[in-house]
Structures are given as structure tokens and as C-alpha cells.
Specification:
Layout: H1 3-12, H2 19-31, E1 35-36, H3 37-43, H4 49-62, E2 65-69, E3 75-79, E4 93-98, E5 104-111, E6 129-132
Parallel strand pairs: 4-6
Antiparallel strand pairs: 1-3, 2-3, 4-5
Helix pairs in contact: 1-2
The structure holds zinc ion (3 copies).
């Protein structure tokens, strides 16, 4: 368990430490890849859906997690890096989906390239999903 780290994150975001919030963060910390709400429900079945949904929303607002769009149309969530704050996310990095294990991970080292739009279009945000085989499935644990 990552209880200490979870409590630290909650404290930084001025959030009260509830069991649900703490355990949701622990799930994110232990998986190291993006998690969907159904996966979260499965891992934490002692909390009801509404509570989990509210917790995810609070975390999104507070800059603790960000949304990761999957090519199946389902939404996943991943932990933010330290730069995100309340109402302001800095997560325009590439997401990588492995075709073998189907996990999606944040590739924070690669940002989404700047997009120049035609006149009349206003940019809000962009997400980029790269698909391939991840380092774990390739048996390559070098990095
Ligand atoms: Zn963020
Ligand atoms: Zn994989
Ligand atoms: Zn990400």
C-alpha cells in the first residue's frame, strides 16, 4: 500500500483524507497505468459507484488525475505529475496503448506537438494516443 504517499497528495490538494480518496490514490500508485472507472469499482468494491465517481471528479478538478482517452471510447484516468494544480492541468503528453496487455501509460517525456489550426478554429486541448507494444511486453526492462 502507498498510504503515506496518498495522504501526502491529499494534503497538498487541501483535501480531507477519507478512506475512499486514500484507497483510490493507492490503486493509481500501484498500477502505474491508466485505470477506468469499472476497473476501479472492481478493485474497490466496498465503495459504491457514486462515491467513486465523485472521488474521481474531485481529483480531476484538483489536478491529481487527468483523463486518458482510449481508442475504445472508454475514459481512463491517470495520476498527474506535480505540475498540475486546481483547475489547471499540464498533461499534454502522449499516451501509449499496448496492443498486447492493453494497458495505457503516460509518456510524460513526449509532449503533444503544437497544432496550428485554420482561421476560425479555437484550440482548447489535444490528446494523442500512440499504439504499439510496451516495454514490459517486449521483455525489455532496460529503462
Ligand atoms: Zn493534470
Ligand atoms: Zn504491454
Ligand atoms: Zn497522462
Amino acid at each position: 500500500m502507498h498510504t503515506k504517499e496518498a495522504d501526502q497528495l491529499l494534503k497538498q490538494s487541501n483535501l480531507r483524507q477519507t478512506d475512499c480518496r486514500r484507497e483510490v490514490i493507492c490503486v493509481f500508485l500501484s498500477r502505474q497505468h491508466a485505470v477506468s472507472q469499472p476497473e476501479l469499482e472492481q478493485a474497490l468494491h466496498k465503495f459504491d459507484r457514486v462515491t467513486l465517481y465523485r472521488t474521481l471528479n474531485t481529483f480531476l478538478t484538483k489536478g491529481i488525475i487527468h483523463k486518458v482517452l482510449d481508442d475504445t471510447g472508454s475514459t481512463k484516468y491517470a495520476l498527474c505529475t506535480g505540475e498540475c494544480t486546481e483547475h489547471h492541468h499540464e498533461d499534454e503528453h502522449v499516451h501509449f496503448k499496448c496492443l498486447k496487455c492493453e494497458n495505457i501509460v503516460c509518456i510524460e517525456a513526449v509532449s503533444v506537438p503544437a497544432i496550428s489550426l485554420p482561421t476560425g478554429f479555437t484550440y482548447v486541448d489535444a490528446s494523442l494516443l500512440v499504439r504499439g507494444i510496451c516495454n514490459l511486453c517486449q521483455g525489455n526492462n532496460e529503462s
